[in-house]
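User: quick one, sequence for these tokens?
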């Protein structure tokens, strides 16, 4: 599968020396609207999970050796 170029090459000139630089294609103005209520709910749960794990581990007692 051949990928298309995600931008273009531009020839620039500085102090009489020519060079080519890569100018990336602009990003989309806004993300596509694929956030359903179910997906947003799962995202929020995943976002809160590390905090819950941190609070549980801070209350845990060390294992006796």
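Assistant:
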């Amino acid at each position: 599968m051949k990928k298309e170029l995600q931008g273009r090459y531009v020839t620039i000139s500085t102090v009489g020396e020519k060079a080519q630089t890569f100018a990336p294609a602009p990003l989309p103005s806004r993300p596509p609207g694929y956030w359903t209520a179910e997906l947003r709910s799962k995202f929020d749960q995943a976002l809160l999970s590390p905090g819950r794990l941190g609070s549980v581990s801070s209350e845990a007692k060390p294992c006796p050796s």
